[in-house]
Design a protein that fits this description.
The chain is of the alpha+beta class. Helix content is about 30%, strand content about 35%.
């Protein structure tokens, strides 16, 4: 991320799709090499520092359990399937969310001397995406801290108080 990127600049966008679903998308970038950002997305030790852990087969078609260990409460884990894995460019994972399968797509590219991450998730038309967007915003700020070495975001409540107006205007 740009060292001075505001919460607004880091905010995800929601776009209606032709099939009625909603696409949530975030773009983040770093001056770090693509292999380093890929490592933060996939290596167990680094993954644990910003989002959680994955226990299972680490290959396309592999299945396992994903534990979001930075969430409150008990970390029971969710079934996960690695749909695509093309290091260091693309990772697609299906996991379960409230009442549906979540497809998460993470694409990395080198642009202008920076590594750019595009994160996408799709939701049904009737889903209120704001809280999910805020959650991913927080996690992607935690990823930024892992990649850049800068401080991570505030605890969830303080962070949500700061970014919520961008996702839930008054």
């Amino acid at each position: 991320m740009c060292e001075h990127a505001s919460a607004e600049d880091r905010r995800g966008t929601v776009t209606p799709e032709a099939d009625g679903r909603q696409r949530l998308e975030f773009r983040r970038s770093w001056p770090d090499p693509i292999d380093d950002v890929w490592s933060a997305l996939t290596e167990p030790e680094r993954l644990a520092r910003w989002i959680g852990r994955y226990e299972g087969e680490r290959a396309p078609g592999g299945t396992g359990t994903f534990f979001m260990t930075h969430e409150e409460g008990e970390h029971t884990g969710s079934p996960a399937t690695i749909v695509e894995c093309a290091p260091p460019r693309r990772l697609v994972v299906d996991t379960t969310g409230p009442g549906e399968i979540w497809r998460l797509e993470l694409d990395l590219a080198e642009e202008g001397g920076r590594t750019v991450l595009v994160f996408r998730q799709w939701f049904a038309a009737e889903v209120d995406v704001a809280d999910f967007a805020g959650g991913w915003h927080w996690y992607l700020d935690k990823l930024d801290a892992e990649v850049s070495g800068r401080p991570g975001p505030a605890a969830w409540e303080a962070f949500w108080a700061e970014v919520r107006p961008g996702y839930r205007p008054a």
